[in-house]
Design goal:
The structure is a single chain. This protein is of the alpha+beta class and 388 residues long. Helix 3 packs across helix 4 and helix 4 crosses helix 5. The strands form 4 sheets. The protein has a 5-stranded antiparallel beta sheet, with no helix packed on it. The protein has 2 domains: 181 residues, Immunoglobulin-like (Sandwich); 160 residues, Jelly Rolls (Sandwich), CATH 2.60.120. The longest helix is centred in the middle third of the chain and has 30 residues.
Length: 388
């Protein structure tokens, strides 16, 4: 692409025109879903611009990769951030630990959207493995060769970026860490991007969307081939998922007056677990204003130690309601992280009127006032964590 073509707005829009085929392929015969598929395209392009124009390998900065608005396949309990690196350089990651559940830094050789072939993580650093003093501050140097620094992490020569997952379960009560990345061997001020580089990155916006949507197509094809209202274990490592995490996912479908009862044992040991509802295009539902996800801090376990949740269009008046936000069809995804086992929950469709017959007798009844208070606290906590 020439500089002249890239700087012409109509030419740039032309590079995005082929994305329309994706929305038509995934919208089926649902007018609402057709509009949401177009929204998906706009979201993907916005995500690409934000990521691609924020980065330089000699001046990286940690930016959000997903958030409550750019929410494709997002776990509401994780804040995801990203920075582009050059493995030939030397970097320092520093910050304060905070009180969130964990902070994991991952070296990547390929990420969805950014690379032709997304791949499994190359290496992972648990911030809690560092010698963090009482004040909570830390600093670690990333380089191919060890220097004189006390804190050092080997930078794999295949690394092109790092991604960070920061998990919190008590959104209202935990404090996220503060993190920064800097290049230690860059010299002088960073000049403005020249016209050719701007043209190249604008072209990359279109290529990012192509790659991202192709990966999404592959995931959706797998899910659509499986029976509805069932869950299956899934391995996300090829898309950047963690190797020490059990994933499960599946499709749901229900009507007004119906409910899906989700039941599972809890692993004897686990560092984190959570479950989230998504739309048919793999976007996490609005978790700021709706109880569309639950984690080990938010959920109530029954007296027998099992986890039971109810997915239904109407409020079932139970603590563990998973709200599909008006959707009769969608997806469910769950995680058991650093767990001693990876149980697969069961799904049972029942008439909503008969639900109480299948729940333990001591399951509380949630009033309208209690639900409002739960949602208000949830919204506050989600906004406290928001990273833009």
């Amino acid at each position: 692409m020439s500089v002249e073509a890239a700087l012409d707005w109509r030419s740039y829009l032309g590079t995005l025109e082929r994305l329309q085929a994706w929305s038509e392929r995934n919208a089926l015969d649902d007018a609402q879903l057709r509009q949401e598929a177009v929204q998906q395209l706009a979201m993907t392009v916005a995500q690409a611009y934000f990521v691609l124009f924020s980065q330089r390998s000699d001046a990286p900065q940690l930016v959000t990769f997903t958030n409550p608005i750019v929410n494709s396949a997002t776990n509401p309990d994780f804040m995801y951030s990203y920075a582009a690196l050059d493995a030939r350089r030397t970097y320092r990651l520093s910050g304060t630990r905070g009180s969130s559940r964990f902070i994991h830094v991952v070296q990547n050789s390929g990420m969805i959207g950014l690379d032709e072939v997304p791949g499994p993580p190359l290496a992972m650093l648990d911030i809690d493995s560092l010698a963090i003093p009482a004040g909570g501050s830390f600093s670690v140097v990333l380089s191919a060769e060890r220097g004189d620094e006390h804190g050092w992490w080997h930078l794999d020569p295949r690394t092109s970026s790092i991604s960070i997952r920061q998990a919190a379960c008590d959104w209202d009560g935990e404090t996220d860490g503060r993190l920064a990345i800097e290049c230690l061997d860059a010299e002088g001020p960073r000049p403005r991007l020249d016209a050719r580089e701007i043209a190249s990155r604008l072209g990359d916006v279109s290529r990012f969307a192509d790659r991202y949507l192709a990966s999404l197509d592959a995931l959706l094809a797998i899910l659509r081939a499986r029976p509805v209202n069932t869950l299956q274990i899934n391995d996300w490592r090829q898309f950047g998922g963690l190797s020490n995490q059990f994933y499960y996912q599946g499709r749901f479908e229900l009507a007004a007056g119906e409910a899906l009862l989700i039941e599972s044992e809890i692993p004897r040991q686990t560092r984190y677990w959570g479950i989230v509802t998504l739309d048919e295009l793999f976007n996490s539902l609005d978790w700021v204003n709706n109880q569309s996800s639950l984690n080990d801090s938010q959920a109530r376990l029954d007296s027998d130690g099992r986890f039971r949740a109810v997915l239904s269009l109407e409020d079932p008046r139970v603590p563990n309601w998973l709200d599909p936000v008006g959707r009769r069809r969608g997806l469910i995804q769950g995680r058991w992280f650093e767990a001693s086992s990876g149980p697969l929950p069961t799904l049972t469709k029942v008439p909503l009127a008969d639900l109480r017959d299948l729940l333990p007798a001591d399951t509380p009844v949630v009033s309208d006032a209690q639900r409002r208070a739960m949602l208000q606290r949830r919204s506050r906590g989600a906004q406290y964590r928001r990273k833009w």
